[in-house]
Amino acid sequence: MLHTSDSFAGGRSEHIIGEWLRTRGVRDEVVLAIRVGAHPDNPGLDPVNLVRAVEASLTRLGTDHIDVLYLNASDGVATVEDTLATAEWLVESGKARSVGAFGFSAEQLVEARILASAGYPRLTVLDVPFNLLRRSDFSGDLRLVAGAQNMAVTPSHALEHGYLAGRHRSRAQAGRSVRGVQLAGSMNRRGTRTLRALDAIGTELGVPPAAVAVGWLLAQPTVVAPIVNAFAPAHVEELVQGVGVRLSRAHLAEIARASD
């Protein structure tokens, strides 16, 4: 599965992925997930911009359909009903196969579920920033509603900008780039305790800290597929080990103590 957004690098990410799919001829082997709603040319989820955003994404990707269309409501949504009505047209026209949500509140998810019972497309997937160090975005009513609706949760920022991979443990290592600033935000006592717990469990299980962090996410109810970023083949090899990690109750308790 590949996940990107029309706003990443102003659409350049989609162009690169589209070229990769074309040159390798693997489109039918890939689940393609796109988040729309934040591109500067087509901002928001009003009917006109939503259709234009999807059309532009399809062009950049060089494909005729999106497997999972995430609707980005971070900047607000005029009406949930109008957005779902447009999504219905996109699904019926074959441009999108399933619809997910990003930035929706618990109340909006409830409203969307009510509308789905009246025939509108159902929001079946939820993309929400969530990891060991960032749990507030997916808590309370949002988590309860997602569970009650049996939504497939695909948490983004699975490694908190890479910090939970354990490669950068000091501000000197992180540098002064934008990513360095993001990493530095986790370099505190809580972050250090969490990395030590991941190190210890990883050593016990014979896997890297990143795999333990992914394994923790997969142990959470409703989580089906963490969204992870990789910058080298070695990163992918580390991350996929998380699929096979089975954390015991003792492991989960140890991680909870460290990250609280």
TrEMBL record:
Domain named NADP-dependent oxidoreductase: residues: 3-258
Pfam families to which the protein is assigned, alphabetical: Aldo_ket_red
Superkingdom field: Bacteria
Residues forming coiled coils: none
SUPFAM superfamilies in alphabetical order: NAD(P)-linked oxidoreductase
InterPro entries: AKR_Detox_Biosynth, NAD(P)_OxRdtase_dom_sf, NADP_OxRdtase_dom
Protein name listed in UniProt: Aldo/keto reductase
Species name: Microbacterium elymi
